[in-house]
Amino acid sequence: MKLPLSLLTACLLLSACNQTRLHNEPAPIPPANWQGAHTLSSPAGNQQWWTHFSSPELDRLIAQARAGSYDLAAAVARVQQARASAVIAGAPLLPEVSFGASANRQKLLHGKGYNQLDGNDDKQAVDYFDAKLSASYEVDFWGGKSAARDSAVQALKASEFDQATVELTLLSSVANSYVQTLAFNEQLRIARLNLANAQNVMQVVQTRYDAGSATAVELAQQKSLVAGQQRQLPLVEQQAQEARITLAVLLGQPVQSLVLGNTAFGQLQWPSIGSGLPSALLTRRPDIA
């Protein structure tokens, strides 16, 4: 019995040492394109994003802000300064060419030259002409001039991104303040309408109370509701005025001269926003790029 047991044990040990074959399943192939009906709009289509609201008044305010903003004008001036610095920094890498010309005329006189000219007309005047043309080029052996040029170019790009950031911040702030102003005006209209309705209901309850068909509790509740509406009205008026002040500051003019039309909040057309976030948005963000 010992021999069969030994053979059985050896077979079990050999089977345990056997290497199990792993099945290499093919990896799923990711799709080459995003599956969806949404098509990404080109960056050029978002250059004038405020026009998607279909508000001529907002377009006018945006144009006024771009024309009257000192911050944006300073950013544009910094870009022009950086562009000029880049041109100056790249000048030493170019050959230097100089050209000069001169002309001279002399008259010959007798003796000391006080009285008469030389009798020969050909010798009365002598003309001299001189022209010089030179060119020189200094080899940028150590690369210092190229590095200075590259640094100036990168500084120009940074200035352009700063200008885009200032412009984007200004225009978005103007659009946001304008929409907030319309929203607070709409809230103010609703608050006044609610107050008028509450006062009308209070008059009805007061009439019923005088006739004995309403209790004092109902009248007190309606008066409390009217008082709450009256308390809410100044808060909404203050918020609407603060939004107008913010918009006037962004436009660079006093709030007294800010003229807005009768555009209602509900008349704005909200642009459609596609699903997902395209990665190309990162390249259009000057504060990230």
Description:
With 289 residues, the chain is mostly helical. It has a domain at 50-94 and 160-261: Outer membrane efflux proteins (OEP) (Up-down Bundle), CATH 1.20.1600. Helix content is 53%, strand content 8%. It is built from 5 helices and 2 strands, in the order αααββαα. The protein has a two-stranded antiparallel sheet. α2 packs across α4 and α4 (144-211) runs antiparallel to α5 (216-251). The longest helix is centred in the middle third of the chain and has 68 residues, at 144-211. The two termini are 82 Å apart. Residues 36-44 have low confidence and may be disordered.
Task: Determine and state the CATH class of the domain at 50-94 and 160-261.
Answer: Mainly Alpha
Terminal Cα span: 82 Å
CATH level-four homologous superfamily name of the domain at 50-94 and 160-261: Outer membrane efflux proteins (OEP)
Number of strands: 2
Q: Low-confidence spans: pLDDT under 50, at least 5 residues?
A: 36-44
CATH architecture of the domain at 50-94 and 160-261: Up-down Bundle
The number of helical segments is: 5
Q: So what's the overall shape? A: elongated
Oligomer: single chain
Q: What fold name stands as the CATH topology of the domain at 50-94 and 160-261? A: Outer membrane efflux proteins (OEP)
Q: What is the average of the pLDDT values?
A: 77
Helical content stands at 40-55%
Category from helices, strands and their pairing? mainly alpha
Q: Secondary-structure element order, as H and E?
A: HHHEEHH
Major beta sheet, strand line-up: 1-2
β-strand amount: 5-15%
* Biggest sheet character: 2 strands, antiparallel
Radius of gyration, taken over Cα atoms and rounded to an integer in Å = 43 Å
